[in-house]
Structure formats: structure tokens, C-alpha cells
Fold this sequence. Notes:
The chain is an alpha/beta fold. Helices cover 42% and strands 13% of the residues. It has 28 helices and 22 strands. The protein has a 7-stranded parallel β-sheet with strand order 1-7-9-10-11-12-13. Strands 18-19-20-21-22 form a 5-stranded parallel β-sheet. Strands 2-3 form a two-stranded antiparallel ribbon. Helix 1 packs antiparallel against helix 2, helix 8 (180-197) packs parallel to helix 9 and helix 27 crosses helix 28. The longest helix is centred in the middle third of the chain and has 22 residues, at 455-476. Glutamine (GLN) binds at residues 432-434, 485, 491, 552, 600, 602, 643, 645, 728-729, 731.
Amino acid sequence: MKTTIIGFPRVGSLRELKFASEKYFRGEISAEELQNTAKELRSTHWQLQQENGISLIPVNDFSFYDNMLDTAVLLNAVPERYRALSLSPLDTYFAMARGYQGEHGDVKAFAMKKWFNTNYHYMVPEIEDTTEIRLAGEKPFAEYAEAKALGVPAKLVLIGPFTFLKLARFTGEKTLSDFVEDTVKAYCDYLAKLNELGVAWAELDEPYLVKDLSAEDIALFTQIYKTVLAAKGNVKVLLQTYFGDVRDCYSEITALDFDGIGLDFTEGKQTMALVQKNGFPKEKILFAGVVNGKNIWRNSYEKTLKILEQLRPVCGEIVLNTSCSLLHVPYTLRNETKLAESYQKHFAFAEEKLEELAELSQICASAQPQATEAYQKNQQLFCEDRHCSNAEVQRKVAALTEADFVRKPAFAEREKIQQETFQLPPLPTTTIGSFPQTKEVRANRAAFRKGEISEEQYVDFNKKQIADCVALQEKIGLDVLVHGEFERNDMVEYFGECLEGYLFTEKAWVQSYGTRCVKPPIVWGDVSRAKPMTVKWSVYAQSLTKKPMKGMLTGPVTILNWSFPREDISLQDCAYQIGLAIREEVLDLEKNGIRIIQVDEAALREKLPLRKSDWKTEYLNWTIPAFRLVHSGVKPETQVHTHMCYSEFADIIQDIDDMDADVITFEASRSDLTILDVLQENHFRTEVGPGVYDIHSPRIPTTAEIKTAISKMLSRIPKEKLWVNPDCGLKTRGIAETVPSLENMVEAAKACR
Length: 753
Ligand code: GLN
Ligand code: ZN
């Protein structure tokens, strides 16, 4: 049986691409040196796939920043403001990704959004009225030439026209339909070029198909592909879907002239039923996504063989595939030196998933698959007791009642009490929690981790950082302070390491956006709080100031969403377990004199099911309660904040209000503040800080710019409810831009008062 994958992690096993890119941004290496690193990585990744006998190897899955951005550039969708900078193509690309501030001008970056239901972010293409969509770039062809020279059996991958157009932003008068013709032409030209080059397979990724589709969407998809597929010539075209099933358009897509269709049998709840009910055209190849591209547990060969058995009578050729790009899992287990083999054997990262595909292919080729050694070994793994349960935790979750999810007194009463307690000025200023993580801060953590310094030295260093950070905030004139989070590598990993039931890794990085990677911990067993996690830092920070110091925690939904979850208990049970652990920490902070506690739910929005019909029944019904469980036990005068990354919660605005926090801060600065109307229309009750400037870019916002943002907010939000803050934590920023940015912010708030 043939095998393929949809994409491979591109940052490298030790994040080589990240480090090279950052060096390039700092002017420490040349563009050529950066290109060379990239080229080496591509070749290493292809070779690894070749060694595992992958039959069709993705090419053009590489990216310096993001594949959507690559696609925009390929299609000539480069907005005027970037062209006007007159930079090199590579620097123009990075200006779109990161913004640019320098001798050539001052422009903001593209907006960034979560890629479907993952923690990966894509850059939102901007299409202007003057944009002329046409095939303009060379990247896929150049990478194909590289692959060909290395003898790689290439499959050229690209985001498909439908998904590209559906996710793009149209910034002028024109709308999507004005660009369909040119986009179709560009993809036809793309296929013509692949014909010229002799490419065997072209994969077009259309994940948008797993969302709820309207009749117009389906008509648009069909219209686009009728023309595009007529231009395919000798190139075989694979329609690849992932992150769910294609229940709205199964018959339409199978009727089109694709040579292969990729379906997700892991997350696609209805995929199997669709295939069985409607059949699958025998002349097409089914690319069956059976190896989970998002989670790190070993594939159960028994389950996979069952899927294949069910498919065989219905389908012609089947190619074994991952459920989505392996971009969403870490690179390799090989670098995990501290994780015992008894754990490791249960996991498969990207490299090990290649081995799984190879094994599955061999097992399937055998006359007696169940008798093969690989199959039996796998069977045995799934029969083993993992020794991961905690009866006490299970008892607590089972004993939860309605009352555990309700904070008293009601919001309005608390709001009054808190206004009296804190006496904050109007438009109070604050930050989201972290301050710049300098080299020294990271070095201190690393040294402690490696045992090079004592705990005392480690703590003293951090205390000094906290003291400096508090002094800086007082000097800048912020109203509600933070300790800076210097002890944290990552807002989830830190808690994972403090909680029982979690496992953590050394090098298991996953790209989040651009050069930013995260190292999600693994939920191994029942979760509980072994000891206080943040109390001593917060108490120390509070001791340095009269201003309120926010205790800073990560909420249960975010901890869970940014971890690799268990597959043997429900997400709800796991979220309640974590919720109980964080609740203990909240009460501990309160007991120790912390009067404002922020519980970040940065990732609550991102795992909202892609289909609306599943929102309440499969997600909001347990995520909102999990958050309420965390804070329902605090006193009325304790102020509970929450923070969310990104502002796309117009559709669930009522549920966000129902989290019953006292204050929420979120990101609106990159999304032209449209969320403000939604807040106003829905009489949003929670106090809000919609983020007055974008921290994902090194640009320094001017006071005037921030004043404009605040005024706009004040036109929609009652002045008693508005907070002034950056749109996310500052840890990825440098001190150099952070200080003037915050100074400008405080000055703007004062002016507006
Ligand atoms: N408190 C966290 C910080 O400031 C929140 C980060 C986030 O929202 N991603 O870093
Ligand atoms: Zn954030």
C-alpha cells in the first residue's frame, strides 16, 4: 500500500529555521545564509521520508512563515503598502508577516488568525481593489526542482483556490466574486506549469470544505474546480481535506474530475458513514487520513485495519495518509532523553508517524496482517495498564454539583463592591501578564533546569527581575500591575510541569506562528495540584507595591487545548480535573492577599468545533462550566480577569459573558475593532479591555494612534467598563519597544480620561 503525508514540520528538529530566521531579522546573517539553512532542512526532511518509504512526498509544504502567506505571494496578492517599501522579495514577504518599521517606511503586518481548530496561526491575505491576481511566484517550482534533483517522489502541495478566497480579506469595495475568474486562471496556469515540469501529483488543500457550507459555497467550489480541473493535463490532482468531514459536499466533490480525494478518518466524525452510504468512485484514489496528525499517541493498528477493511469493498486504490499536516505535532522522539521508554513507547511524533505509515503499509501487504510482529507489538501496547489513574481526583469530579459552577453574588453586585474596593481611575491601564523574556531571563531558567545554579540563585534572579518589572510599571504609571512571568517558559507548559498527571518534553516543539514555537505538555493521567504553583511569586510581587498585583494563571480549557490530550477519557472530564486544580490555586492566591486574579483562556475560542451545530453540544457545554468552576469560590471583592487571544467571538459573545469573569482583555487591534459593535449590540456585561495595540509586531504605536483606538472603543463601550491594555502578553517583545509602547499607552489613557 502506498503512503503519503500532507506536510512535515518545517522548523527543524532543533528549531534551526527559527534561529536562522531570527538571526536574519537581527541582521546577523545574510539572506543567502538563511536560504541555505532552509534548503538543508527541506532536503533532510525529504530524505527522512524517503528512508521511511513514503511513496508521495509533499513539496512546497515548507514555509519561511506561513503557507497562506506563501500562497498570497504566489498569486501576486501583495498589498500596495508593502510594494511601496521597495524591499527585496524576501524582505517584502517578512514585512507582510511581521510589519516593517525602518528607513523604507512604517507598515503593519497582515492579520493573523488561528488555522481552523488548531493552535497554528495563518496570515490572512488581504486583497485590495487594485490587486491583480495572477501566477506570479516561483517558490513551488523552485522547491520542486530541488526535490527532483534529490530523486524525491514529489507531490506538489498548495492551498486550494476555494480555501484561499474564503479565508482572504477583501479590503476595498470589491468582493470575493470579483476575484474568482483571475484566481481560477492563476491555478490553471499553475497546473500548466506543473505539466511543463512533469510533476506527477498536485495536491490542493481545501480544509474549508469541512466547515458548514452554504449552497453558494458549494456552487462556487464546483464552478472553480470545473475550470481548474480542465487544465490539469497529465498532472494528477488530489483534493485534500482535513480537520473534519465533508458532509455538506460529498457528492459534489466526488463527482468532479479529481484523481484522488483525501478524507480525514480521524477527526471526520461522519467520514466513514459518508463513504459507505454514497460509495466512492472506483477510478479515483482515496487518500485515507488514518494516522492522527494532531495528537501524539501511537496509532492503534487494530482500529486502522478495521477502517481499511470497511473501506476496501467500497473503494478502488487506497493510499495511507495522515489526517492533517504533521506540522501540528513535534518533530521526533529521538531528542527526548529524559522521558522514560515506558512513556515513550506510547507516543509517535512526526518522524515516528512516518514509521507507523511504513509499518501499516507492510502489515497491509501481509497475507495475515494480525500475525505480523509489528501488529502484535502494537496490540500489546494498547492492552497495557498505563498506571495513570487517581481515585481521589475521579471522586471529586464525580461529586461536582450545579452550585460548584456558580459564583455569588451576581455580577452587578460584585462590580459595585469591586469599584469601591479598588478605586481605580477611569480607563484603568494594565498589561496581559508577561514582560519581555530577555536572554538573561531564559538563561537563568535554563541554568536552573540543567542544575548549573542552585534554587536560591534561580529564585533570587527572578525576584530581581520582578522587582525591576514592578518598578518599571510604577514608573510608567500603570494601574494594575503584573509580576512579569519570568519563571514561565510558556503559559501552559509551566502549569503542566507543576501538575500531577502531566508529562513534559525537552525538544517537542510545535510551530505556533512564524518563528514562534510552543512545547505542549502531554496529559498522561488524572490531573491534580500537588503544590502551590504561582503563590510565592505573586505574593512577593505584591509585597513590592501598593497597587493591585494580578495573580496570573492559565485556565483549564487553555491548558487542555494547548496540551496533547488523552484519548482514553473525555475532554470534559479532563477539563474538570484541571479546573479543580486551578481552583485550588485561585483560592490559595486569594488567601495570600492577591486581590485580582487573571485566569487566561487564550485558547478557548480556537477549539470551537468547525461546525456550528456542534458548538453547544460538544464544546461550550463543558468549557464555560470548566472556567466557572475555577473562580466560583472567591469572595465578592476579589476581581477575576480573563484574557483571550483573538477577538473572533462575535458568534459566542453570550457564552463569553456567561463565563462570569469580572474583566476580560482580548485582542482586537489587528481586526479593525469590529468586535466593538458586537459588544455594544449584545449589552456585554463583563468589563472589557479590547487591546489598544498589537504586540505581535515590533512596531511602536504612537500615542495618537492609541488615543484614536480608545476613542473608537468609547463610542461603543460604556466608559465605566473600558480597560486600556496591549492585546496580549509582552514576552515575545524586546524591552526597547515595550517601554515606549506602554508609555504611549498610559499617556493616551490619561489624555482620554
Ligand atoms: N498571561 C499570558 C502572557 O501575558 C497570556 C499569553 C497569551 O494570551 N497568549 O504571556
Ligand atoms: Zn493573548
